[in-house]
Write a structure and sequence with these properties.
Blueprint lengths: L1 H5 L2 H10 L2 H20 L9 H10 L1 H9 L15 H13 L4 H7 L3 H32 L8 H28 L4 H12 L1 H10 L4 H23 L1 E14 L2 E14 L6 H10 L1 H6 L5 H7 L5 H26 L1 H7 L2 E2 L7 H26 L1 H9 L8 H31 L1
Antiparallel strand pairs: 1-2, 1-3
Helix pairs in contact: 2-20, 3-9, 3-10, 4-5, 6-8, 7-8, 8-9, 9-10, 10-20, 12-18, 12-19, 12-20, 13-16, 16-18
Amino acid sequence: MQQRQARPRLVQAMADAFSLPDLRRRILFTLGILVIFRFCAHVPLPGVDPEALENIFETNALMGMLDMFSGGAMRNFSIVAMGVYPYITATIIMQLLVPVIPRLQALSREGEAGRNKINLYTHWLTIPLAGLQGYAQYVLLTREGGLYTQPTLAVATIVVSLIAGTVFLVWLGELITERGIGNGVSMIIFAGIIAGFPEMIGRGMIAKEQWAGLVGFVILALAIVFLIVIFTEAHRRIPVHYSRSVFRGRRMYRQSGSTHIPLRVNTAGMIPLIFAMSLVILPTTVASYFTGGVAEFFQNWADKWSYWLVYFVLTVAFAFFYTMVIFEQMDLANTLQKQGGFVPGVRPGAATSSYLGQVMSRITWGGALFLALVAISPYVVENITNVQVIALSGTALLIMVGVALDTMKQLESQLLMRRYEGFLR
């Protein structure tokens, strides 16, 4: 027993999971789907100039971010070059539209059936977004010299292939969610990031002469991971009391209980980083179409401190914006009132809504500043360690840690459920 308790939680959970046939099948199924994804990432589309394409992704920040979400598939211009990025974009758009459009608001309150309908709309929206992004990607790479010019029919074939690749990955992700372990779309992004580790290690070997800088780089990376774990799990507990009347025979009895609402410090997750990155690299992308002094300034803007300052401010702003959107959709005060719950010392209804909103605003400052520090971590780490060969992506670390924690929780909940079922038997 002491030996079992001495093992790390994740190692023990994996060992217990492989001892159960149904969980072992889920884990192997997930790994098999990820192998299929990595195989598709190496099936290229026609008209690629490999050397020019490699140079584009080394110098273009926008393409580097998109390549991260595609798991390196965009660097090869494969059939899954866009990854699940159009689906993520469609999901964000739908989340922002739900509180604005009354029809979507009504659907969100219809339980499982409403969520399935909204998910269907998200899938439909993914297709035109994938088409637009696929064509834009082809035009950008062709203009930069990474692809050879193709006739119209060939371009249409390429765009359709990119749409099909995105839809195929979304389908694989949903298979993982349904039959495997973890959130499927997140697992695909996670696998793509992990697949880039060998190249990062190779770059580290190139910079081995800067051993002091490399040691500092590793220490700072581990410190950032530690902070990500803390802020991902951090939450504020709001005490809640429940009271209700129960009739037994001719008498009425009062029953009461207490619990808490966990308000997460980082409710927005990685979404503010994606919003901020998309806006901050927009001037650079637009400037690449022009020539002159202003165009040259924006093309080199990513190397300046002002770029990272704007990135920091935008991340904080979007963290507050997206958190408030999610908080409004949760409608906690109304839900508590319907269930007979109340926060001690606060009147139900509007007063509870105002109180929870104030608490959420205060704790969001911590989450927003944390996300902003993660956003500018590449600039900070590079200037401290003076290591430029390896790029530390705070967004990639945030995704990896979040997916790992979520998968571990799902695995432990599956184990707990099966132990409980075994106890009942």
